[in-house]
Amino acid sequence: MDVPKVAGGSASAALKQVLDSPEVQRLIADLEATRWTGRPGYPIRTMVGLCLAKSLYAIPTWTRTAALVTEHWQLQRVLGCEGNPPSKWSAYRFAAKLRANAPMVERCIDAVVKGLREKLPSYGTDLAIDASDMPAYANGQRYVYEGGPERNWQTDGDASWGHRSAVATRRGGGFFGFKLQMACCTKTGLPVAWSVETAKANESMFVAPLIDEAKRRGAMAVTCAMDKAYDIGRVYGECAERDCEAIVPLRATGAVVKNEHRPPACEHGVWTFAGSDKKRGASKWRCPTGECKPASTWVKADRLHPLMPRESKRWKALYRGRGAVEREFGRLKNEWGLKPLRVRGLDRVRLHADLTILTKLACALARTRAAATTQRQRRNGTARVGSRPAPMRVRPEVRRE
Ligand SMILES: [Zn+2]
């Protein structure tokens, strides 16, 4: 990963940093502006902090997040609710508020991505797109029990049956739920654009929207690596339209079996690659000895003949970068609490994914900023040796009501 490394502080220190970042402050201010009536409730900052804590501590439910905050005074201090921790019910109400104000969350994500782009110039240049399974909080069985009556209700009406590939010792096969479609930066390993869709939706349909979203957020998106499942003529066209080079290996389709993807050849041997013209949408190939007339030819770019030949070192390096998106799925699921789902319905699952990835990106941004500050202090010779924020040691008085 290209992300600067700094000594990790406590999770509560990270939470404080993220809560105090200008991007999250803006979200808090936006949400405060919507509170014009109704019960006074907890401060918005406390509730936003509770959402961030849920992902930061990888807790699947609001009940357990609220319980954690209730038990830890340090967390309460960071959230600004000492002696009066929010209940799980207030967390549910706040989640509904966030769903109703989805554009505000979206704007916060955009701002965090922009901040990362300023600090990490390579962020968003080379992308990798893939989809990953998010099993629903419902079983999706058609019959109530084997040989029994058909189910006449749906625990999660938005979830559907889809296919997932094998991972480690787990077999590939069908699963019931959703899929996270994600575009990751291959240099920094950080997500750039994503969307949650029902599991049966065709993955190749989300390449164009993901690249558009990444570009809208200011990513360069020069190349996009994808696996064989995306080896469809339409995908190459959609990428080319968006000035993004698709890096996809070939499936053994009829044309490939007939060797139509091979470079041109003559009696002097296989022709060599002599560069591509993006504007022209074609690559140039030359006779190895130059004796042919004409000695070179332009081949129009398509699935079989991409602008960047699949045999080139650059193509292979970019395709190796595809692993970044797989690793990020693993980190989000296992370290940031993307899995297991404990909410039902597409809008709730979407909010869950958005908050999880937002927390992860905001933490990365806070870390990058902290590293930049330390570097500057080192240059100026003002850094304290082994500098760390002063720990919050004094235990507050416990108020019992
Ligand atoms: Zn020749």
Give the mean pLDDT.
90
CATH architecture of the largest domain, by name, is 2-Layer Sandwich
Q: Domains counted in the coordinates: how many? A: 2
Kindly identify the CATH topology of the largest domain.
Answer: Nucleotidyltransferase, domain 5
SS element count, helices: 13
Short structural description:
The chain has helices at residues 11-19, 22-34, 44-56, 62-71, 73-79, 88-100, 102-119, 207-216, 233-241, 254-257, 313-320, 323-335, 346-380, and strands at residues 126-135, 160-164, 173-185, 191-198, 223-225, 245-247, 265-266, 269-270, 272-277, 282-286, 296-300. With 401 residues, the chain is of the alpha+beta class.
Please provide a written account of the structure.
The protein is built from 13 helices and eleven strands. The chain has 401 residues and is an alpha+beta fold. The chain folds into two domains: 137 residues, no CATH class; 159 residues, Nucleotidyltransferase, domain 5. It is globular, with a radius of gyration of 25 Å. It binds zinc ion. The site of zinc ion has 6 residues, from loops.
Can you lay out the helices and strands and say which pair or pack?
Elements (H helix, E strand, L loop, with lengths): L10 H9 L2 H13 L9 H13 L5 H10 L1 H7 L8 H13 L1 H18 L6 E10 L24 E5 L8 E13 L5 E8 L8 H10 L6 E3 L7 H9 L3 E3 L6 H4 L7 E2 L2 E2 L1 E6 L4 E5 L9 E5 L12 H8 L2 H13 L10 H35 L21
Parallel strand pairs: 1-5, 5-6
Antiparallel strand pairs: 1-3, 2-3, 3-4, 7-8, 9-10, 10-11
Helix pairs in contact: 1-3, 1-5, 1-13, 2-7, 3-13, 4-6, 7-13
Bound molecules: zinc ion.
